[in-house]
Design brief:
Blueprint (H helix, E strand, L loop, with lengths): L3 E4 L3 H9 L4 E5 L10 H18 L2 E6 L8 H18 L3 E4 L9 H22 L2 E5 L20 H10 L5 E5 L2 H4 L5 H7 L4 E4 L12
Parallel strand pairs: 1-2, 2-3, 3-4, 4-5, 5-6, 6-7
């Protein structure tokens, strides 16, 4: 197991991670997606990234492609395809992202849009040896009770339907137990159940105060 944190990729962050004893960084989208298809730009960025990482002895655990959600399927497919290629050049084996979702639509409708993207992306990820891990952040709208989500993959019922629609071993979870705790879901049981699908992990302290309204 390697410990790291989510941040941007800079020389300062690589230095800090090494100084405080971390092994890796989950890197949040520092590249210009419009230019990643340009081999000259991409090679220069890969060279720069490798130099920073090697100098401080840290690695990239995952490339984080967190979008403003929802997004157009074509745009997302193209971006993920570019990131799969970038993973190959950087020697990274995981992309972290979100399932997405339109809060005005039902789960099955959101799954159809998700399937349109990942039925194409999953075979490319398998071929490249890259895993794609979906963050289980609820993304609920700021109403009470909360209605609708811009990221539907936040509970086991959604995971079952996702992985039934696109049953690729390279699609899995960026598992964050904290988001299950407040939903009253036994996160430890879900670790056992979804162990083969857990490709990356987030961790934070979570406490429920039952006596507070």
């Amino acid at each position: 197991m390697k410990l790291g944190y989510l941040t941007s990729l800079t020389a300062e962050e690589c230095k800090l991670a090494a100084e405080i004893g971390y092994d890796c960084l989950e890197v949040s989208s520092p590249w210009d997606l419009k230019r990643l298809g340009d081999a000259t730009y991409r090679k220069a960025e890969v060279k720069k990234a490798r130099a920073m990482l090697d100098e401080h002895g840290v690695i990239i655990s995952a490339l984080a492609l967190y979008w403003g959600l929802p997004q157009a399927p074509k745009e997302r497919t193209e971006a993920l395809t570019l990131y799969i290629g970038l993973c190959h050049e950087l020697g990274v084996d995981c992309i972290t992202t979100m399932a997405g979702g339109d809060p005005t639509k039902k789960l099955d409708d959101n799954l159809t849009a998700w399937e349109a993207v990942f039925s194409v992306v999953a075979p490319a990820a398998e071929k490249a040896g890259v895993k794609i891990a979906f963050e289980n952040w609820p993304g609920l709208q700021s109403t009470f009770p909360p209605i609708g989500s811009i990221n539907f993959a936040f509970n086991p019922a959604a995971w079952e339907k996702m992985f039934a629609r696109v049953d690729s071993p390279n699609l899995g979870l960026e598992f964050d137990p904290s988001h299950l705790v407040w939903q009253g879901i036994d996160w430890a049981a879900q670790v056992v159940r979804w162990a083969k699908r857990i490709h990356h992990v987030h961790a934070k302290d979570t406490e429920i105060f039952e006596d507070r309204g």
